[in-house]
Amino acid sequence: MKFLKLLLLFTVISFNLNAQNNSKLKNNQQENITYAIRNVNIIPMTKENKVIEKATVLIKENKIHSINKPIPKNATIIDGKDKWLIPGLIDMHVHTLADGSPFVIYPTKGPLVSFNTQYNLTPYIANGVTTVFDLGARPEHFGQRNEIIRGDVIGPRMALAKVIGGKKSNPTAKNPFDGRNAVRSAKEEGYEFIKVYTWLNEETFKAVIDEAKKQNMKVVGHIPIAFKGKQAKDFFVPHFSLIAHAEELSKQTDDFSYEKAQEYARLAKDNDTWLIPNLTNMLSISQQAKSVQSLKNLQGFKYVHPLIQSKWLTSNGYYGASEKLIEYYKKLYDFHILIVKAFKEAGVPMVAGTDAGISGIIWGFSLHSELKLLVDAGLTNEEALASATRLSAEWLEIDSKIGTIETGKFADLILLEENPLDNISNTQKISGVFVNGKWIDRSKIDIMLSDVEKWNNANKERYDWKELLNSLKN
Ligand SMILES: [Zn+2]
Question: What is the DSSP-derived secondary structure letter of residue 257?
Fold first, then answer.
């Protein structure tokens, strides 16, 4: 019962098999097809994670119907020979692009920029990201979720967290009373999670967390700047159960020793606080500080909306940092690595999240970079995979539905050309993706991506971030 709305997404999707639409991308009829992946090596990502070789997986009505049972006559066969099947990936920290304005203005003014939802979501699907946790969710994201449920677009499952305590966010919550009200409103509005943010004061931070607990909403987020210089035990509180970036910890201290990382890990363990290391973002910040042109070389850059490309290239907040600041970023990144090692040593679960949507972090593509960096930081390939599958589903409390390959779970799956347990980069060798039982093979993925690219190229001239900001001044 805990996350009724999120679970509702699963339920509703399964009742929406016949939704009609005209786009060449979509063919919901397909969901009535029974699929049999034959001869495939299953990496189930259960705790035991015993690989099942040369197996048959039957997918029926958006679920994993059976493993190694007879194939019905009417089944559509997918050849899995020498291929590997993993659960669909979960990105635990995203900011999905949605209709809106460059900064907070009166909501009644309506969005200044509108986007094609499918183009926003295609990079997730193309990368096998079948669930995302939006840590800056707005009403527009409920709209996107409804578009997915209706079958108008193909997209990931979306868990939505409401931000409390941002500088210009609504509500800002300056005191515990406002903080508690903000949590209750978020609950009423249908958000499943609360994200605490940087500008909360100490008492309001604690009141928000306490109220969220009463409202049965889990809390993810930042560690408010108000705690800087205080003892770490002050900001580790029970029910603040997921830290949005390792940076939240590194910014609280000037002591970048392994002992400090171990202290954080111990406190996290005691309070059942999990961590999103978010290494991609920190590394990207230090690269952008030196050069923005390198962004153009990022995998997937051409699929980023031209307005956002323009923003990242012409109004990049990180670019041009002093040598001293660049040196500081490097220290932070090195400390991030120590934090990952210490959390692993202490047995604190870590879940993969990218901050996709933030300058230089591309939806879908960045999760594969994060997995690679987690392995470089000391996780095994299997631990990295678990961070983006089973463990993320556990934190979201939807592990009975997704996150592993087991009979009865929803068919969110990635078919890979090579074994990711041998090399984590093999998560990128995608031969096809099942999204809620819908099979999207490589050729369809390529069509979806090229649609985005073509549109971006054709509309490049229409979007200029600085011009948009100037137009708002008038
Ligand atoms: Zn974020």
Answer: S
The neighbour count for residue 15, using CB atoms within 10 Å, is 9
CATH topology of domain 89-404: TIM Barrel (3.20.20)
The predicted structure's pLDDT at residue 7: 42
Pairwise CA distance, residues 355 & 363, whole Å: 9
Upper half-sphere CA count for residue 388 (Cβ side, 13 Å): 41
pLDDT tens-digit readout, 35-81: 999 999 999 999 999 999 999 999 999 999 999 999 999 999 999 99
Q: Tens digits of per-residue pLDDT, 183-200?
A: 999 999 999 999 999 999
- Between CA 115 and CA 55 the distance in angstroms is 41
Residue 235 Cα, ligand 1 centroid: separation in angstroms?
Answer: 19
**Pairing label, strands 240-243, 218-221:** parallel
pLDDT computed for residue 104 by the predictor:
57
Residues around ion ligand 1, judged by CB within 5 A, are 135, 355
Q: What pairs with residue 358 in β-bridges?
A: 356
pLDDT of 167 > 90? The answer is no
Query: How many A from CA of 355 to the centre of ligand 1?
Result: 5
For residue 219, give the nearest of 255, 165, 177 by alpha carbon.
Answer: 165
**In the chain, where are the structural domains located?**
89-404
Torsion of CA 195, 201, 206, 211, to 10 degrees: -60
- 156 Cβ contact list (under 8 Å, min separation 6): 88, 121, 124, 125, 129, 130, 131, 132, 148, 435
